[in-house]
Structures are given as structure tokens and as C-alpha cells.
């Protein structure tokens, strides 16, 4: 079932949605670069050389060379970003807007002096207004289309065939695991068999066996950035990674020697649009580096493969700077994410992972706090009564689980995405494990299979 996009039926209009943002990321970044005088100079001196520095598609570069704004927007450009290119060429906003209408510059100015274009006949495709009909195209765009017509037809046919395949995406399981940075260091330096670490890693052996039999197509992985990708200039409450790849971040020790994380841009953009339409405010991130919060759980479940065996959609939650989202908000967000995934027209097996926690405090005289009894009660409640658990106030997490124990609200996102929350069967507990300590932290782990 496709997402509702009523704006597709508005004539002569390209709405910049999550799909467009993903598609046009590097085109728009190129345009942003032209805000610097040195870059404008280099671009004017040798356009081809400058464009080659940006990982745009060949079509996007062709559209830029043609200065065809309609074409650029079709390939993901946004008018506010594209205006930087227009400004580099010495064009006003009115000149840029007029160039997309099929009018001469004088005709467009006269229309604006007469009060602008009327919405009459231009609200829906198929009416008789003066914005109806085919989009104005440059000769370069027409030539490009003629040359690539066969390839476009094949792509459209393949997409239609895939959409005709039976089934929607589904959430099959949720996985919960702590993401202690020292665990990553133990993996990276070959210390997993040391006396200190062996009991903790042994607890994940059943999980690795389970994962071999239940490897998903996509993991929607909820984690928090640890002041690596997001600094104090911008800290989004919820952020979804929509890129095709995510490189390991340098957290001060150099990037971890783990594989690049491969994303699922189409599903990520679909989830973003669906969840925002359900009134959750997400930040869409097209360029994201991922830290131990995301890569350590992957190690715990998959070991150290040459490549991660499935695609991953990173989902960041701010649990660093207060105010942080409530448990109830996270639990409701999980339900919105499940609804988004189940509306995606491809029979994908998707798992939702909640990471972070359990009890730990990393700062102040109370550093080192561990509350094993409370942690295990949290796991009990997460399994049996997550809705009630979601009402726990922040101060309870801080008092009982430590200042960094607030990360556990992220587990409620994964739990909220399970079928029983929406009236389905109760989940099956495939594995449960708890261990103290891993460096400064209690490690909790749980696998729930949808009933």
C-alpha cells in the first residue's frame, strides 16, 4: 500500500519530500558549496572538473550543465538549494522561477505584475488552467530522455514487477542489547576470550545461532549518537539515516575496523514520510557516520564478518541532552514505525533493535552505579507489560539506573513495534541474558519473536 501523496496530483508542482531529499542529496550539497566565493570561482573556471568532485548521477550533472531547473528538480533538487547555482550565474529568483514556466522572461514579469498566476484550473491535474500540460524542458533534457528511453522503460518495468510481488514488509522480531564501547574494543583487539570478557560474549552465542536462522533483510536499529556525528550545535530528538552507506565514526581512537553499514534508502524514506504523517517529528539525515552505539550490537549478534549480512536503517534518539523524549513518546513512536514498515510494498523481513543501557552512570561521584535487581525487573515488565512500563518517569531511570540508564527509553521504541501492542499475539522470548559488568555498565539482552 503506497503512502498517501496527494500533492502528486497538483499540476506543475514538485514537492520536496523524503524521497526527493534522498535522491537529490549530493546535487543539493553541490549547490550549497557555491555559497563560498572560492568554490564559485573554481566552478566558473572549469565546471566539469568541479562537478566531478561530487558523487552526483550523470543525469544530475547533465541537468546542471543545461541549467534546466525543472530537470534538476526531477532528479531531487530543491529550489532553495538550486537558487545558489542561479545566484552564481547572476540570476534573480524571479528569473529562475520564470525559466521553469515555458514563458519568456518578459511574459513572466507581466503575469506577476498582473497579480500572479491564478489557482483557478491549477489545483488538480487535468483541469483547464494555464499550468497544465507537460513540463517545460530544455533541448538537452529532451536529448537525454531520447538517449535513455529504453533504460528508463526497463527500470519502470522492473519496478512494476517487484510491486506486483505478493506481500508487504513485516516486523518479525525485536532485539535488545547494550552498546558498551569497551565491548567494541574487546572485539577489535581480540580479547573476547579473556577471563574478563568470555562470560559476557558467551551469553550472546545463542543469539548468534538464532540470527543465522533468522537473518532479516533489514534491521531498523535504534541507538543514540555519543557526541560523534551530532555535536552541541545540533542535537535532533529523533533522526533517521536515509543514505545508502554509513561509515564508522572516529570517536577519538580512530574509526572502528568494522564493515561499512549498508542502508536501505527507499524504505528509510518511506518510514520517514509515514511517521512524520503520523505527527512524529523526525530529522532526515542523508549523510551520517555511525558510532559504537550502532556497531557494537551488530558485533554481538553477527560476530566480525567481512560485510554485515543485512541492510541497516540507523535511527538516532537524543538521550544525551535534556529534555529527552518520554518513554510513552518512544513507545508510541514504535507503533508508528511498525505501521510505516507494514505499509511498504515489498515483502521484506524487518527486525527492530533497541540498544543502550542497562543501568550505568558514567559521571560524577555516583559513577559506577549498577542496579541488577531493577534491570531485571525492567526486562520482566518490557516482556509482559510494556505499555505500563512506558509511563515510568525520567527521574525513576536516573535514580534507579543511573544518569546514563535513561538510554533504556530507546528499548521502548523497539517494543512498541511488536504485534501484540496492536492486538496481535504475545511475543515469544527466544533468548534472555544479563551480565555485570562490561566496563562501567550492566549488559542486558533480549530477543522477542512476533507471535
Summarize the model shown.
The chain is an alpha/beta fold and 451 residues long. It has an eight-stranded mixed β-sheet, sandwiched between helices. Strands 4-5 form a two-stranded antiparallel sheet.
Annotation keywords:
single chain, 451 residues, alpha/beta, Protocatechuate 4,5-dioxygenase, Chain A, Protocatechuate 4,5-dioxygenase, Chain B, eight-stranded mixed β-sheet, two-stranded antiparallel ribbon, 20 helices, 42% helix, elongated
The largest beta-sheet arranges its strands as 6-3-7-2-8-1-10-9
- The dominant shape is elongated
Radius of gyration: 25 Å
Could you say what the CATH architecture of the largest domain is?
3-Layer(aba) Sandwich
Distance linking N and C termini: 23 Å
Give a description of the structure:
By secondary structure, the protein is an alpha/beta fold. The chain has two domains: 159 residues, Orthogonal Bundle (Protocatechuate 4,5-dioxygenase, Chain A), CATH 1.10.700; 280 residues, LigB-like (Protocatechuate 4,5-dioxygenase, Chain B, 3-Layer(aba) Sandwich). Helix content is 42%, strand content 13%. The strands form two sheets. Strands 6-3-7-2-8-1-10-9 form an eight-stranded mixed beta sheet, with helices on both faces. The protein has a two-stranded antiparallel sheet with strand order 4-5. Strand 9 and strand 10 form a beta hairpin. The radius of gyration is 25 Å and the shape is elongated. The mean pLDDT is 95.
Amino acid at each position: 500500500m503506497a503512502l498517501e501523496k496527494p500533492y502528486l496530483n497538483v499540476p506543475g508542482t514538485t514537492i520536496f519530500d523524503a524521497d526527493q531529499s534522498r535522491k537529490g542529496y549530493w546535487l543539493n550539497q553541490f549547490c550549497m558549496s557555491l555559497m563560498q566565493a572560492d568554490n564559485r570561482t573554481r566552478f566558473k573556471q572549469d565546471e566539469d572538473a568541479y562537478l566531478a568532485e561530487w558523487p552526483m548521477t550523470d543525469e544530475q550533472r547533465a541537468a546542471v550543465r543545461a541549467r534546466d531547473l525543472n530537470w534538476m528538480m526531477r532528479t531531487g533538487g530543491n529550489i532553495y538549494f538550486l537558487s545558489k547555482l542561479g545566484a552564481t550565474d547572476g540570476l534573480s529568483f524571479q528569473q529562475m522561477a520564470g525559466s521553469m514556466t515555458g514563458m519568456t522572461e518578459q511574459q513572466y514579469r507581466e503575469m506577476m505584475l498582473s497579480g500572479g498566476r491564478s489557482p483557478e484550473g491549477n489545483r488538480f491535474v487535468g483541469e483547464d488552467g494555464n499550468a497544465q500540460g507537460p513540463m517545460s524542458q530544455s533541448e538537452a533534457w529532451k536529448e537525454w530522455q531520447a538517449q535513455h528511453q529504453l533504460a528508463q522503460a526497463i527500470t519502470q518495468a522492473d519496478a512494476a514487477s517487484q510491486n506486483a510481488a505478493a506481500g508487504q514488509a513485516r516486523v518479525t522480531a525485536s532485539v535488545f542489547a547494550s552498546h558498551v564501547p569497551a565491548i567494541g574494543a574487546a572485539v577489535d583487539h581480540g580479547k573476547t576470550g579473556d577471563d574478563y570478557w568470555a562470560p559476557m560474549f558467551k551469553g550472546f552465542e545463542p543469539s548468534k545461532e538464532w540470527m543465522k536462522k533468522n537473518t532479516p533483510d533489514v534491521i531498523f536499529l535504534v541507538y543514540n549518537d555519543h557526541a560523534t556525528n551530532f555535536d552541541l550545535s545540533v542535537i535532533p530528538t529523533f533522526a533517521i539515516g536515509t543514505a545508502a552507506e554509513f561509515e564508522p565514526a572516529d570517536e577519538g581512537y580512530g574509526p572502528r575496523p568494522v564493515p561499512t553499514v549498508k542502508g536501505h534508502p527507499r524504505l528509510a524514506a518511506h518510514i520517514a514520510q509515514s511517521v512524520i504523517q503520523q505527527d512524529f517529528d523526525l530529522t532526515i539525515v542523508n549523510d551520517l557516520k555511525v558510532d559504537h552505539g550502532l556497531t557494537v550490537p551488530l558485533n554481538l549478534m553477527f560476530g566480525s564478518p567481512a560485510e554485515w549480512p543485512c541492510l541497516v536503517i540507523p535511527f538516532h534518539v537524543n538521550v544525551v541532552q535534556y529534555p529527552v523524549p518520554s518513554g510513552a513518546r518512544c513507545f508510541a513512536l514504535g507503533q508508528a514505525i511498525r505501521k510505516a514498515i507494514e505499509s511498504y510494498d515489498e515483502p521484506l523481513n524487518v527486525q527492530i533493535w533497541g540498544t543502550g543501557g542497562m543501568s550505568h552512570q558514567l559521571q560524577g561521584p555516583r559513577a559506577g552505579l549498577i542496579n541488577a535487581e531493577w534491570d531485571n525487573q525492567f526486562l520482566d515488565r518490557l516482556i509482559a507489560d510494556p505499555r505500563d512500563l512506558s509511563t515510568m518517569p525520567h527521574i525513576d531511570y536516573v535514580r534507579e539506573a543511573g544518569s546514563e540508564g535513561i538510554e533504556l527509553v530507546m528499548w521502548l521504541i523497539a517494543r512498541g513495534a511488536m504485534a501484540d501492542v496492536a492486538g496481535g499475539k504475545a511475543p515469544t522470548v527466544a533468548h534472555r541474558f544479563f551480565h555485570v559488568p562490561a566496563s562501567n555498565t550492566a549488559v542486558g539482552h533480549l530477543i522477542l519473536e512476533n507471535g
